[in-house]
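pinned: reference chain
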Amino acid sequence: MPKKKEEAAPKMLRITLVKSAIGYTERHKATVRALGLRRLHQTVEQVDSPVLRGMLRKVNHLVKIEEQG
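pinned: its structure tokens
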């Protein structure tokens, strides 16, 4: 019986809100909320994906991104 390929754990990103979205556009505020961030210095972990990378590119001036092994 052939061995099954073990699926690698999905790559995770740790995202921290380091600057307030006050004074930025509603789209930036909505993107920060969609990432799951509500307060300054709050950290969330999300699965890395092209959609997430696009969101982070739009608000990269407001967040700090760390890659998890």
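why pinned: The chain has a mean pLDDT of 93. The longest helix spans residues 26-34.
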